[in-house]
Specification:
This protein has helices spanning 2-7, 15-26, 36-44, 59-63, 72-87, 91-94, 100-111, 130-150, 152-171, 177-200, 204-220, 224-240, 244-257, 264-281, 284-299, 315-328, 332-339, 348-364, 368-381, 388-401, 408-417, 421-428. The chain contains 22 helices and no strands. Helix 5 (72-87) packs across helix 9 (152-171). Among the domains are: 2-62, no CATH class; 67-222, no CATH class. The N and C termini lie far apart (55 Å).
């Protein structure tokens, strides 16, 4: 606290006086005022909101904002606050809802953004080089593998802890412009991962805020391909939450915004995201056209020219997206055909989703016995997954299954499903069914 006061050009009273104040705060007899509050925040490395000192600077309001950061410095500060608040379990943030207008604002702000900015004068003492950037990328890659294999709830806290304690100081360190651009892009990719994991955990407001910060970092990293992929992630989340018009707009913005540097795989993903949103609106014709464009784009890809982080989007992944689409437009037989081609064998969570879509499609086609058999396969797949999204797929299936009534197939399914962890999670959450 003395060091912080000195940086502000002030000084604290004697140790005895300061210790009496601290004892008073700890015993809840008083709270830090406008002078001591910022010093306490700095000393503990926490925001006023995290410490419950919301009377100080309005940081709780800033923390919960869903705006696109206007400058790199604003992005550094905002994402650092998000990481720390998330790490400390700040409930108003972790339990927050997404902002519908934020999706439109972010896509527009990014589309019309000027040239990438660069921080005026990095203040930190850390000297950052390309080796540091490579370390962040490698570490984030490891976390991405854990996310894919075990779900977003498995290592989400560890990712945020790494970003907050190891990566945040790099953003305000000393680096050349070339290193800085690479750093911003890599941190954007890592923050995108934190957003996906938060989305998979159904912390939707938090996930949206991570996506927004990642988009700004990608802009200043001059990585338009990654920025497009971030908009695609936003579209995916918006569809999941029922905001279909915004989801389609985000997918189109991604396609438009990187048209000059887009790769076939990225374009295929953007068309697929648009198709997912259109299917939910019931616009079958437009959905089919978007899927046809996605298929056409993917057929022309050259893997050597694609960013490594989009390599997962292949024929199986596109088949899974198509299965979702045809299920949602009540074309059950076509959904079954695509879902059967959607099993990658290497992406556990994606295979779980595809299997559940297949089960739901069989159910809609009137084959309850096969639907139950496939759903049990999905439960076996998901035994190691910690994913609230996976639980939501199961809850939706169970809701549809109740309409079938009591049959030998459903009784057998319920008996066997009751032994699986993900199914038990539905009961703990008292999901209707």
């Amino acid at each position: 606290m003395r060091a912080g006061a000195a940086r502000r050009g002030t000084a604290l009273p004697t140790d005895a006086s300061v210790k009496r104040r601290i004892a008073s705060w700890e015993n809840l007899h008083s709270i830090p005022d406008e002078f001591y509050g910022p010093l306490v925040c700095e000393a503990l490395g926490m925001t006023a909101a995290e410490l419950g000192l919301n009377h100080l600077t309005g940081q709780d309001t800033q923390l919960l904002e869903t705006r696109y950061p206007p400058t790199p410095e604003d992005a550094f500060r905002a994402v650092d606050q998000l990481w720390r608040a998330d790490l400390h379990g700040y409930e108003p943030l972790v339990l927050s809802e997404p902002s519908q207008p934020a999706w439109s604002e972010a896509s527009l702000r990014w589309l019309v953004a000027p040239e990438p900015s660069f921080p005026a004068a990095p203040r930190g003492s850390a000297r950052v080089g390309l080796a540091d950037v490579a370390m962040v990328k490698s570490t984030s890659g490891m976390f991405a593998q854990l996310d894919d294999r075990f779900g977003g709830d498995h290592a989400r806290h560890s990712v945020v802890q790494y970003l907050s304690r190891d990566v945040a100081p790099l953003l305000t360190g000393q680096y050349t412009e070339a290193v800085g651009r690479a750093l911003f892009s890599t941190v954007a990719e890592s923050t995108l991962l934190a957003g996906w994991m938060s989305y998979d955990s159904c912390h939707h407001g938090l996930a949206q805020r991570y996506f927004l910060q990642a988009l700004r970092l990608a802009q200043d990293g001059d990585d338009r391909r990654l920025a497009g992929s971030i908009l695609s992630a936003m579209s995916h989340q918006a569809t999941f939450l029922g905001h279909y018009t915004e989801a389609a707009t985000l997918a189109r913005a991604a396609r438009m915004g990187i048209s000059g540097v887009a790769t076939p795989t990225l374009m295929a993903q953007f068309h697929a995201m648009e198709a997912r949103a259109l299917a939910r609106t019931g616009d079958t014709r437009a959905c089919e056209l978007a899927l046809a464009e996605a298929t056409k784009a993917l057929e022309s890809r050259n893997s050597a020219d694609e960013p490594e982080w989009i390599a997962y989007f292949d024929e199986a992944e596109l088949a899974a997206e198509a299965a979702h689409c045809f299920r949602d437009v009540n074309s059950a037989r076509r959904a079954v055909a695509h879902a059967e081609n959607a099993m990658s064998g290497s992406h556990v969570r994606s295979d779980f989703f595809a299997t559940m879509v297949l089960a739901d499609a069989h159910l809609r086609a009137g084959d309850a016995e096969e639907a139950c058999r496939v759903a049990l396969d999905a439960l076996d797949l998901g035994e190691q997954l910690k994913s609230a999204r996976c639980v939501s797929y199961l809850a939706e299936f169970r809701q549809h299954l109740t309409r079938i009534g009591d049959t030998p197939a459903t009784r057998t399914f319920y008996e066997q499903a009751a032994e699986h962890r993900l199914w038990m999670t539905i009961d703990r959450k008292n999901t209707p069914g």
